[in-house]
Write a structure and sequence with these properties.
4 strands; 8% strand; two-stranded antiparallel sheet; mainly alpha; 146 residues
Length: 146
Amino acid sequence: SDLTPGNILRRPDGTFVLTDFGFSRLLSDSTKTISAGTPGFLAPEQLSDVFGTVSQGTDVFGIGGVLYFLLTGQPPFTGNDVAEILASTLSSCPAPRVSDLVSIVDLALDQLVADCLSKESSERPDSIADVTEKLSVIRHGLAGHE
């Protein structure tokens, strides 16, 4: 799916709805792949088989991108044009840490977002459920410090 902030809407009752269930990869023929999604939020494996196959780790990367945007106001990978953004996504350099862009951020949240945005799918949390559980622990920890 194309998990980006622009594809998440909030209903009047407060529930959130994912509005775009686009394909992570579209096969045009047996030798060529066309990626679909939003530059800056795409997982590396959506762009190149070198990073492995699209999996639930791709969704973990997507939720990491949404969290990153909510905390920083920008996508994890930026550039002057689409080619530069895609090159940044495929490079060996990680996205800048949230803590590099925002003066006050919980260190556990900063680490979780960085883990979600790992270029290697195997280094990301196992699932969205795992991310949700970690966010709950972080939230309860923050609430206890108020």
